Structures are given as structure tokens and as C-alpha cells.
Amino acid sequence: MGLYNLLEKIIQHDEIHSKWLNTLSFMENAGARKISACEHPTEVSLIQLKHAAEEHRHAYYLKKQILKINPEYCKTYNSNELLAPIATRQYLHSLDIKACKYLQQVFQLTKEELKYAAYLFVTYAIEVRADELYPVYQEILTKTSSKIMVKSIILEEEGHLEEMINQLDEFSEDWKTHADTVLTIEKELHEKWINAISQEVLQLNYA
User: What pTM did the predictor assign?
Assistant: First the structure.
């Protein structure tokens, strides 16, 4: 199922929609924690702190949107309150591991250098994905006059992507070649994630 059709199905059911918001919140929170985990013990840039703070805020904002649907839904990140919990938990973790393996092969980095490279390339891939996913979601929310909004996240994610490109320009002249490889890894994982969610949504719809 394509993303647009999937999201159309998701927002038709309050509980499924809440789980979708909670799943996005979980992933934003996981992203923020990954960014913090990649920090150098002392040499932490202002942009890196900004990104971690904003991803945490996105997680909070998405969680808060659930209250507009039903305050009793999705109070935790337990598996029964996420869509496709196994694929959701594996997505970012697998991307991080596979990207690190690739970056270590091509750049021969120290442990701290690898952490920073992973932050740059993995965050870039996630921002590219966010720039595709959130506008489609908002389009459907607008079309259906939903109380839920993600416009503020879209604006910040666009800014993040620009900042990541600037940092990657400083990191390596041929970063785009390596970013393409990481994007290919991310695309495969994203497709698995969307397929897992599609299967679950279809089951929940017809249950």
C-alpha cells in the first residue's frame, strides 16, 4: 500500500490514528536519543544540541496531539500502543548499524569520529524521509479538516535538512556519493516499516 492510501486509512479510525501519532512520536524520541548518544564528550556543536532538543519537542508535540483524539489512548510507548512495533523499533536502530558499518569501511574513522559521521549521515537520511512523509500526512489532515496538525514539524524538518547539508559539506567533498548509499539503506528499511504498518492496519480495519 502506498503512503497516501495508508494514511487515508489510518486517520479514519481514532485508535489507529492515535497509534500512528504515537509511533511517529516514538521515532522522533528515538532519533533525539540517537543524536545525544552521538555527542562527543566535550566538543558538542550548537546545531547538534538544537537538533536533539527539536526532535524531543517533536516527540512531545505528536504525543500531545493524541489528546485531541482521546486522552485515554497511547499513554506509553509499549508495543500494544504502537503500529508495527517490531519494525518500528528496528527501523532507526538498523539504519544506524548499517550506516556505521558502511561509513567505517569508506572513511576508516576512530570511535568518536564514527559517532559524528553516523550523526551526520543517518540524520540526513531521516530528514530526507521526514520531508516526504510529513507533508503527505498534513495534506490528508487538511483535506479531512482534522484537528491534528503537523505544519510546525514540517517547517523545522526543512530547516534541519538544510543544516545537515551544510555540515556534510564541511565533513567531506564527496559526501553526496556516500549519502546516496545511506539513503538506499534507509529506503529499504522504510519500505519494510511501511509494509508492516500496512499489514497491521488492514488487519485492524477488518477485525
Answer: 0.94
